């Protein structure tokens, strides 16, 4: 199901998320639902990634495209979901690149981040995995990891840039009525396409 994406300044976006307890029976039942909601919300919004607090779930999980640099339209199989992820290493070299966030419609910001990141996480079966990601994927992972700690991309830039971003967001929200409808239409059309696959 494509979920409604929480936008700034909703308080859900600034909370630290809880770890998932894989030993609970309820986790076994709920994790596939959470995975599907993350996957559908990414595909329905043409996003690179989505973190659970953005869809109103206060748990440590997020999804990103396995290869965000591919040009074909992604499908469910192109998305990787990480549970209880933890950054264990980042590269000393950093780069600046533009980022967007579904919770900040209409805003893009130049954010400095390490070029590569190694993380330990659990897959949906609760098995520990380690991955090193580079480039755009490393950036997407770091952006989504931040969401799990209530950190937003506006917190990664100067006060001046943050002020500018919030103005852009306000401008965008004023036009929301009409934009929102278009976004919903796109999401609906995308959901229909997914059902047919
Ligand atoms: Zn985001």
How does this structure look, described?
The protein is of the alpha+beta class. It has four helices and seven strands, in the order αβββββββααα. The strands form two sheets. Strands 1-2-3-6-7 form a five-stranded antiparallel sheet. Strands 4-5 form a two-stranded antiparallel ribbon. Strand 4 and strand 5 form a beta hairpin. The chain is globular. The two termini are 15 Å apart. The mean pLDDT is 90. Bound molecules: zinc ion. The site of zinc ion (ZN) has 4 residues, from helix 2.
- Number-wise, the strands total 7
CATH class value: Alpha Beta
Number of structural units classed as domains = 1
CATH superfamily: Peptide deformylase
Task: Write down the Rg.
Answer: 16 Å
- The CATH architecture comes to Alpha-Beta Complex
**Arrangement of strands in the largest sheet:** 1-2-3-6-7
Number of helices: 4
Looking at the chains present, what oligomeric state does this protein adopt?
single chain
Q: Topology as H/E string?
A: HEEEEEEEHHH
Fraction in beta strands: 15-25%
What brief labels describe this structure?
197 residues; alpha+beta; Peptide Deformylase; five-stranded antiparallel beta sheet; two-stranded antiparallel sheet; 4 helices; binds zinc ion
């Amino acid at each position: 199901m494509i979920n409604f994406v929480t936008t700034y300044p909703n308080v859900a976006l600034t909370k630290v998320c809880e770890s998932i307890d894989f030993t609970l029976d309820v986790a076994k039942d709920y994790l596939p639902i959470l995975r599907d909601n993350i996957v559908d919300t990414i595909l329905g919004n043409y996003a690179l990634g989505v973190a659970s607090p953005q869809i109103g779930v206060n748990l440590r999980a997020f999804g990103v495209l396995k290869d965000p640099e591919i040009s074909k339209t992604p499908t469910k199989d192109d998305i990787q979901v990480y549970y209880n992820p933890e950054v264990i290493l980042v590269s000393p070299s950093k780069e600046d690149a533009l980022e967007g966030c579904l919770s900040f419609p209409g805003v893009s910001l130049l954010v400095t981040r390490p070029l590569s990141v190694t993380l330990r996480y659990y897959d949906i079966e609760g098995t520990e995995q380690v991955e090193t990601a580079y480039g755009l994927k490393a950036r997407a992972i770091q952006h989504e990891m931040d969401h799990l700690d209530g950190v937003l991309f506006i917190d990664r830039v100067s006060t001046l840039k943050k002020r500018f971003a919030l103005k852009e967001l306000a401008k965008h929200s004023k036009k929301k009525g009409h934009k929102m409808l278009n976004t919903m239409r796109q999401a609906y059309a995308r959901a229909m396409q997914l059902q047919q696959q």
